[in-house]
Design brief:
382 residues, alpha+beta, Arc Repressor Mutant, subunit A, Multidrug-efflux Transporter 1 Regulator Bmrr, Chain A, six-stranded antiparallel barrel, two-stranded antiparallel ribbon, 11 strands, 49% helix, Tscrpt_reg_PadR_N
Length: 382
């Protein structure tokens, strides 16, 4: 037995209810708001009638009128049986959700958040108009039989739920868009986007960091790996906690302060002789108490000794010389040699703090030749 489409089952059900011609079907469909839940245009009513008649599910109920549109049809015994069977299936089967809006949401990343929010707000307004129409149609036909009342109840419930979803989702997009999202790389381009062409002198104000100290070759020292993991885990715990309170931020890049008894160790890349302090910058609104809470939350999830060493560092570097280095970390030696032996002496400058590096690239995903690193050296008059 060939299954019935939603449109066919709807028309067949109306003809089981009472014999009707095309115009009468259109009037009932319009009055009951059937098109809110079934795609059944006026022109398609006669197409559906012809299909049902060819399958022997309906038949003319009397002599024809003055035209095709005035032929009344009624359900046959076979039509009544198939209508009953299809109705049982329709009542029991949870139909899959295939709303077009879900396709739109899946593709929404191609649009700015403001457009997504506006589109959903427009959808909510249209749904409110539709809900008002359904309620008006219901009021005009009261009192309703139980079946019709259930149909209207369902339509109103679905529309109300859709309105609630569209409004909440639109609001969420607006809140996400308007929430302050601090990004230190954008806020301080003077410090995080220097030129790669030549050294430049900048003034570095007091900035606060998450910090972990250590010593040894970063490529082989287990303490270095633990320090970096502790910094990132805590930084993201802070980000999520802060976002929940209404202020979001982008976790800053990994940074490092490097020191050695002999600065020449940086030129020769004698990494085993290096002491370091690894850093991640903090937005100014993050408090020490928030950091302590984030460390405690992180420590409850992972066993990392470096978490016990993590601290907040307020660092004022003042006048500093910096440049953007493009390439492998091990290729920094010649650049630092020019800084130490040429640029600083030529400009009457001396060392005034630890060598500072900002790692703008992720070495796990970036070829060594394309790594971007800010090289910074605090200085003072010689």
């Amino acid at each position: 037995m060939e299954s019935l489409t939603d449109a066919e089952l709807t028309v067949l059900g109306l003809l089981v209810e009472a014999p009707r011609h095309g115009y009468a079907l259109e009037r009932v469909i319009e009055e009951r708001g059937v098109r809110d839940w079934t795609a059944l245009g006026f022109s398609s009513i006669y197409y559906v009638i012809d299909r049902l008649a060819k399958r022997g599910l309906i038949e003319p109920a009397g002599p024809p009128g003055t035209g095709r549109s005035r032929v009344a049809y009624r359900a046959t015994a076979a039509g009544l049986a198939q209508c009953a069977a299809a109705t049982r299936d329709a009542l029991a089967e949870p139909a899959p959700v295939r709303a077009r809006v879900l396709v739109g949401m899946a593709n929404s990343p191609v649009l700015p958040g403001a457009e997504v929010a506006a589109g959903l707000a427009e959808r909510a307004a249209a749904l409110r108009d539709r809900l008002a129409g359904v309620r008006a149609a219901r009021a005009a036909q009261e009192p309703l039989p139980p079946a019709a009342r259930a149909v209207f109840d369902y339509s109103e419930t679905v529309l109300a739920a859709e309105i609630d979803w569209a409004e909440r989702t639109s609001t969420a997009y607006d809140e996400e868009r308007t929430m302050e999202k601090y990004d230190v790389k954008k806020a301080r381009k003077d410090l995080y986007a220097p030129s790669a062409k030549d050294f430049a002198l900048v003034e570095v104000p007091e900035l606060r960091y998450l910090a972990v100290d250590g010593r040894g070759d970063p490529n082989t020292a287990p303490a270095y790996t633990g320090a970096v993991e502790a910094l990132y885990a805590t930084a993201y715990a802070l980000k999520f906690a802060s976002k929940a309170e209404g202020r979001d931020f982008t976790v800053g890049p990994l940074e490092g302060l490097w020191r050695a008894d002999d600065p020449a160790a940086f030129l020769t890349r004698a990494k085993a002789e290096w002491d370091w302090t690894m850093l991640i910058s903090l937005p100014e609104w993050i408090t020490d108490a928030q950091v302590a809470a984030a460390v405690a939350k992180t420590a409850a999830k992972q066993d990392n000794p470096a978490l016990a060493e993590l601290r907040v560092l307020a660092l004022t570097e003042g006048p500093s010389v910096q440049i953007l280095h493009l390439g492998s970390y091990d290729d920094e030696g010649p650049v630092l040699a020019r800084l130490h032996t040429e640029y600083m002496p030529a400009n009457g400058l001396a060392f005034n703090g630890d060598h500072h590096e900002v790692y703008l690239s992720d070495p796990r995903r970036t070829a060594p030749a394309k790594l971007k690193t800010v090289l910074r050296q605090p200085v003072k008059p010689a």
